[in-house]
Amino acid sequence: MPSSYNVRSRARERNSVLSRPEFMSLNQPLRGGAGGAGPPESRGNAKRPGQIKHQTSQPSEEPTDSGSKDRREPSKMPEEDCMQLNPSFKGIAMNSLLAIDICLSKRMGVCAYTSSSWGGCRSMVALLALTGHGITWIIGTIVCLTRSNTLAGQEVLVNLLLALILDVMTVAGLQRLVKRRGPWEMTPGFLDSVAMDIYSFPAAHASRAAMVSKFLLSHLVLAVPLRILLVLWAFLVGISRVLLGKHHLTDMVCGFALGMLHFSLMESVWLSSSTCQTIISISTLSWSPFF
């Protein structure tokens, strides 16, 4: 009796444990046994191992394709974006120098307007800049050439005139190519429009002043004070355009370098006295090929 009582009590305890919510799934019958047990629908709908393997292999292929696409996408990133995210040291240095150039040029434009800090000196600075204008020098050279009576003087003046024309055309071409605006928004004046001095880079006045001063120092016999004044004049003409807000500092520096290049070019193709006399005769319509 005690043994049967113990068996029945253990059975009741097992049933009470299995009736708990966490063990309810253990009381449900199996849908399909390993030995073919279960209803015929479940045995008929049972899938073969080959089909199960085929279906399980398909979802595994999709992540592989998506993973390969994810790996391909970074390779298609535009190169420009990579350069913007990782700028080179050269690009950072150039941008920094340009920012410094613009800042200093704006601060030095003290005669840009009459309301500027040095606005009262604007007319004097503009007159100084006019002494380096291309139209002024071309007209002055032609007048001196018509009044010159020596072959040496005419030779120097003809070569100077050709150098001035070369300077005006070269600077105008570079300005149209670069199209850099000045530090201050200004409308070009009448003489600047005639000389095609519209944009900022390179500075036409600085180029012309450097070329003319070097030309006169090389081909004219001048005293030391005059030579110093000529060099000082070239520098003041270049800086006057910066004070007027027409050019940046880098425009002035590049203009001086371009003027020296023009002088070197004219020295290499220097026209002789006979060639200059031929050009003068053609220009005055008195040249004859038979005499």
Distinctive features:
291 residues; mainly alpha; elongated; transmembrane; Inactive phospholipid phosphatase 7; sphingosine-1-phosphate phosphatase activity; transmembrane helix; membrane
How would you sum up this structure, described in words?
- By secondary structure, the chain is an all-alpha fold.
- The chain has a domain at 120-282.
- The chain has helices at 2-18, 40-44, 49-75, 79-85, 89-108, 122-130, 134-147, 151-178, 190-194, 204-219, 224-243, 249-268, 273-283.
- 23% of the residues are buried.
- Residues 32-67 and 79-83 have low confidence and may be disordered.
**Which descriptor suits the 3D outline?**
elongated
Order of helices and strands: HHHHHHHHHHHHH
Q: Main sheet, how many strands, which sense, barrel?
A: none
Radius of gyration: 45 Å
Helix content: 55-70%
Structural class by secondary-structure content: mainly alpha
Unreliable residue stretches: 32-67, 79-83
Which percent range describes the beta-strand content? under 5%
How many H/I helical runs?
13
The residue-averaged pLDDT reads 78
For the record, give the distance between the C-alpha atoms at the N and C termini, rounded to a whole number: 159 Å
Number of strands: 0
Q: What is the topological layout?
A:
Elements: H1 2-18, H2 40-44, H3 49-75, H4 79-85, H5 89-108, H6 122-130, H7 134-147, H8 151-178, H9 190-194, H10 204-219, H11 224-243, H12 249-268, H13 273-283
